[in-house]
Amino acid sequence: MSFRKVAIDGPAGAGKSTISRAVAEELGYVYIDTGAMYRACALKMLRKEIDISGDVNSVIKAMNSTEIEIAHGENGQIVYLDGEDVTGKIRTAEVSKGASDIAKIPEVRLKLVDIQRALAQKCNCIMDGRDIGTYVLPDADVKIFLTASVEERAKRRYAELVEKGVKTTPEEVLSDMKKRDANDSGREFAPLKQAEDSVLVDTTGNTLEKSVELLKDIIIKNLNEI
Ligand code: CDP
Predict the structure, then answer these.
(1) Which of 17, 20, 29, 192 is 20 to 30 Å from the Cα of 73, by its Cα?
(2) pLDDT digit string (tens) for 49-71?
(3) Which of 16, 108, 130, 147 to mutate to test the pocket of ligand 1 (most atoms within 8 A of CB)?
């Protein structure tokens, strides 16, 4: 049996995870957040005090003995790093930066892409990331590129962080986001870019509810046309 695959790509803070999770729930699809896998790998390197951008050899060596697993619980996706549930530990600014740096290393990407493709073989899924439509699932049934202005994405991310009690400033979040955008779009291997056969959705100025409805309509319409 072959399963349906929906690929959602875009920069940080475009609303990919919140929107994908909500739409997946409505359609009865499994939501797969690939960013969490890069984050878990970055967490491992930070814990081992490996300099991610300066010491690529040590990163690759540590990756050889790294196990990343994904499960789906009542509250959504659970990420296991070497058997430990790290779902709640990968959302810090330090891990965000580390994930963007580790994501430049082809050996890391190839290992995670294998896991992502294997997951997509087993269920109807909505997978979000940066390279899903272009590299991980080039034959996805529906591809969406979700974006918004960098100022709005930073504003949303700042509000999220404040709600979580993280101490930061709007300026710091905007500057981190611009750096991450440049890093993600500028890397050589599987950079963030819109797939030619994807639908571009700009969520600037939309409420979350409006974006969820819009995406749901696009996905259902495209799935029905297959
Ligand atoms: O949630 P947010 O959009 O801030 O980031 P994320 O989706 O959790 O991804 C964290 C980092 O992992 C990104 O900045 C990318 O560098 C990297 N990533 C990637 O390279 N490819 C993917 N398929 C997913 C994430």
Answers:
(1) 192
(2) 999 999 999 999 999 999 999 99
(3) 130
CA distance 144 to 128: 9
CB distance 32 to 125 below 8 Å: yes
pTM equals 0.95
CA distance 15 to 210: 12
CB of 8 within 8 A of CB of 20? Answer: yes
What's the 39 CA to ligand 1 centre distance in angstroms? Answer: 8
**Mutational pocket test of ligand 1: of 5, 8, 32, 34, the residue with most ligand atoms within 8 Å of the beta carbon:** 34
Query: pLDDT for 171-218, tens place per residue?
Result: 999 999 999 999 999 999 999 999 999 999 999 999 999 999 999 999
**pLDDT surpassing 80 at residue 1:** no
Q: What residues contact 49, with CB distance under 8 A and at least 6 apart?
A: none
